Amino acid sequence: MKSWISISLIILLGLASALLIGFGPDYFSIRQSDMDGEQEGLSEQIIIKFSHVVAEYTPKGLAVDRFAQLVKEKTNGKVEVQVFPNSILHSEQTEIPALISGEIQMIAPAYSHLSGTIPQWSVLELPYVFLNYQEVETAFQGKIGEILFSTLEKSGMKGLAFWSSGFKQVTANQPLILPTDFQGQRIRIIPSKVLDTHYRTLGAIPVGSSFGDLYSLLATGKVDGEENTISNLYTKRLYEVQKYLTVSNHNFLGYAVIVNEPFWKELPDDLKQAIEEALLEATAFNNQLSVEMNAQQLDEVLTKQLMQTHIQTEEERAAWRQALQPVYDSFAPQIGPELMQEIEKLHHAR
Q: 69 in helix, strand or coil?
């Protein structure tokens, strides 16, 4: 028993000596302070996972990166936006459920992905609903934007901004000039009831698919054509697998920047303000860039003769609009009178 006591005393004396001689009296307090500081810094930083499905060098991809950088600067690193482009985290089909569940905090889906569950968003898919960027801005900064964002709240989402990708054009391996040219053509679309009806009305066969599958569908001949902005067409090199382009501006492709509402409510007011300021700057950047990039890349398509390109005439546009009027008639009831009246006001002002 005495031997065990002696050994214990020796061990205790050794620890005391190490404390006083080897480590110094402030060692443990300093290390604990360092650890506490590190843990405090980690716990204070807020992570926003921002998932999207397009390439990094499209207007949306570049705008998300700009937003992430601005948030870092404006919050002094308290908020980090982690960007997941090109469907590497979620596809069009999974990003909205992931946002609602809180797995991710921000997304920027195309309007078509919202219209599947919220019928009012179908209004933005109607053919020729906008004819120019001024009409787009009027709609989103006014009553139409306000109504659409209000529809997100019951699903636990909050709309923060509208981003532009640009007006859609059509491509195929045969010219698509008149409405009758679509007869029997398999056209890839974003899965959407409105777009499905749009192309069936023209006699085409719509094929819904993810954006990530588009190139391979065209390359293997599983579809004959598709609709997209010039920037998406160019960055995805669709001109390699499509011969003809019609600049029709028949529809507008844009994105709603959405945040998980419970997550947003928990943020401190000063961080909300900083994020909103960053988003305002990123939105202006995106919208200007989309106009410039679409114009520049269309010029490259024309100059380099990457595709045989036809610019739609006023007469052809009138023929398309007349042929597609049934789409308005089909979806007006589910869109609702309030939004349809706002669209009529917009059109009446032309």
A: helix
Between CA 86 and CA 56 the distance in angstroms is 7
The answer to whether the beta carbons of residues 182 and 198 sit under 8 Å apart is: no
Q: Which helix (H) or strand (E) holds 37?
A: helix 27-44
- Mean pLDDT across the stretch 112-130? 95
Contact at 8 Å (CB) between 196 and 276?
Answer: no
Residues 6+ apart with CB under 8 A from 278: 67, 70, 71, 73, 74
CA 301, 302, 308, 311 torsion-angle sign? positive
Q: What pLDDT digit, counting tens, does each position of 155-165 carry?
A: 999 999 999 99
Give yes or no for a contact between 230 and 169, defined as CB atoms under 8 angstroms apart: yes
> At 171, phi and psi to the nearest 5?
-130, 155
pTM over 0.85: no
Long-range CB pairs of 268-276 (<8 Å, 24+ gap) are 271/46, 271/75, 271/78, 271/79, 274/71, 274/74, 274/75, 274/79, 275/71, 275/74, 275/75, 275/79, 276/160
Measure the CA–CA gap between 291 and 94, rounded to whole angstroms.
29
Q: Residue holding tokens 């509208």?
A: 162
* Backbone torsion region of residue 86, taken as left when φ is above 0, otherwise alpha when ψ lies between -120 and 50, otherwise beta: left
